[in-house]
Design a protein that fits this description.
It is a single chain. The chain is built from 4 helices and 3 strands. 35% of the residues lie in helices and 11% in strands. The two termini are 17 Å apart. The chain is α/β, with parallel strands linked by helices and 106 residues long. The chain has a 3-stranded parallel β-sheet with strand order 1-2-3, with helices on one face. It has one domain. The radius of gyration is 13 Å and the shape is globular.
C-alpha cells in the first residue's frame, strides 16, 4: 500500500476479493493535521483498522520517520500505533514497527 486514507469498506472488499494477506505494509505517518490529511493518509488508529479489515496475518508499519511531511513529531506514529494496537487488542508481533533502515526476514 502507499498513501491511503482509511475507508471502512475498501479494505474488507480487498480481503473478500483477494483473501487475507500474509503480510501487509500499512502506512502510519504523515497524518496531521487530520482535517487536511485524512483523505490521503491514515493515522495509526486507521492503520490498525486496515490490519483488522484485511485480516492480515502480519502487518508492517511504513511511511513514517524518514522525512517530515506533516505536523506530527518524528517518533509520534509508532507510539500512537502502540496505543491503537493495545486499544484494539492487536499484539505488537502482529503489527510490527521497524526503525528506518531496519530490516526483517519474511
Amino acid at each position: 500500500m502507499g498513501d491511503t486514507g482509511y475507508d471502512d469498506t475498501l479494505f474488507r472488499q480487498i480481503r473478500a476479493r483477494l483473501g487475507a494477506p500474509q503480510l501487509a505494509c500499512v502506512p502510519i505517518g504523515a497524518y496531521s493535521p487530520r482535517w487536511f490529511m485524512s483523505s490521503f493518509h491514515c493515522d495509526p488508529a486507521g492503520a490498525v483498522c486496515i490490519h483488522r479489515d484485511l485480516e492480515s496475518q502480519a502487518s508492517l508499519a511504513m511511511h513514517w520517520g524518514t522525512w517530515r511531511l506533516s505536523d506530527e513529531g518524528r517518533d509520534e506514529p509508532p507510539l500512537a500505533l502502540a496505543a491503537a494496537r493495545e486499544k484494539a487488542g492487536v499484539a505488537a508481533d502482529d503489527f510490527r514497527v521497524l526503525a528506518p533502515g531496519e530490516s526483517m526476514a519474511v
